[in-house]
Every structure is written in C-alpha cells, then in structure tokens.
Amino acid sequence: MPSNAVADVQHSAYTDHSIPRRPGAASKATSRDCRIEPFSGTRATQRDLALAYAQVAIEHDNQVCGSRAFELLRKLEPLNPHDPAILLQLAYLYDLRSNEAEAMALYERALEADPSQVTAAINLGAALSKRGQAGRAMQLWKDVLTRSPGAETASLNLALAQHRAGDIQSADATITRALRLSPGSNRLHKLRSELHTAAPK
C-alpha cells in the first residue's frame, strides 16, 4: 500500500444561480455588508434571493450573505423538498459550517432529485471518503466524469483515492485523461508530481 500523498480530497462549489441585481453589488460586498436587490421593475422570489445570497457568499467569502442565505434556504427547504438547487446550496452552507452529517443528507437528496448534480456527487464523495467509504466515493466521481469529463475536482479526488487504494495505474490514467482536457491545470500537474513522489520505489 503506498503512503498517502500530500493532497487530500477536495470539495466543489456550486454558484451558478443568480438574479439580476444592482451593478457592482457583488463586487462591493464585504464581510459586514450584504444587500441584494432585483433591478427596478423586476420581482424576485424568496428562492431567487436565497440562491443569489448563497452565490455572493461563496464567491466573495461574505459571512453576512452566507448567514442570510442559510436562513432563507432553511425556511425554503421544507416547502421545496425536491428542489435540487435549494438542497445543494443548503448542503454546501452546512459544509462550510462543519456540519458534514447534515450536508451529506442534503447532497443525497439533491442527487435523488437530480442525478446529474455534479457538485452534489463530488462533495458527497469527499465526505464519504473521509468516513472510509472510498468505494462509493470513487463510484460517485466516476459517474461524474462519465457525465462531465472535464470536472477537474472529480478527477483529482478519484486519482487520489485510486492511489490510496494501491491502484497506481488507474490513478495515473485518471490524471492523464484529465490533463488531455486541461493541459494547463496546475492542480493536476501538482497531484501527478505528488503521487509519483509518494509511489513505492
């Protein structure tokens, strides 16, 4: 069994949902300020606002936005139990609060609602890997790469898990495939170097 490489499994952030807001609102957000408003004449639902606050919180590491998003999403989740976007963003915010058990349950539900949710699969795999369930974690990452071959975080996590399981050839093949799609990726080159250094002589 090879020794562990320096790297560890990684999470992926999901920030693709937004609503129109005043120009510059996100870029001016600070850890003490966060106010999102729709353009004049437009209306935003509570769901829109919750997802927008979550996006700003994650993109700008804004704790005020994160708290508002968390409050809104916790209220919306029971009313929208099969909405993958709500489940995924709430799961990620639980992850940021180190409540991995709650995050895992929500990632599972997001995948049940929409099996194509790449971020949910990547992050659920990361949590499972930390709990010693490498087999299921690797299967989740393989499924992600079947749907989205360019999902770099899935490739990184899968290669690392394969290496830790002693399957050096598969780990190298995973990184090689990923590098064909992202030849300039520093993360992939760094992991390849770390894994080669950690491989038994």
Description:
The chain is mainly alpha-helical and 201 residues long. The protein folds into 2 domains: 16-98, no CATH class; 115-201, Tetratricopeptide repeat domain (Serine Threonine Protein Phosphatase 5, Tetratricopeptide repeat). It is built from 9 helices and no strands. Helix 3 runs antiparallel to helix 4, helix 5 (118-130) packs antiparallel against helix 6 and helix 7 (152-164) packs parallel to helix 9.
Instruction: Give the CATH topology of the largest domain.
Output: Serine Threonine Protein Phosphatase 5, Tetratricopeptide repeat
Please give the number of β-strands: 0
Shape: elongated
Percent helix, as a range, is 55-70%
State which percent range the strand residues make up: under 5%
**Main sheet?**
none
Global mean pLDDT = 86
- CATH homology superfamily name of the largest domain: Tetratricopeptide repeat domain
Query: What is the end-to-end distance?
Result: 12 Å
**CATH hierarchy, class of the largest domain:** Mainly Alpha
- Give me the CATH architecture of the largest domain, please: Alpha Horseshoe
Q: What class, by secondary structure content? A: mainly alpha
Please tally the helical runs, counting DSSP H or I stretches of 4 or more residues. 9
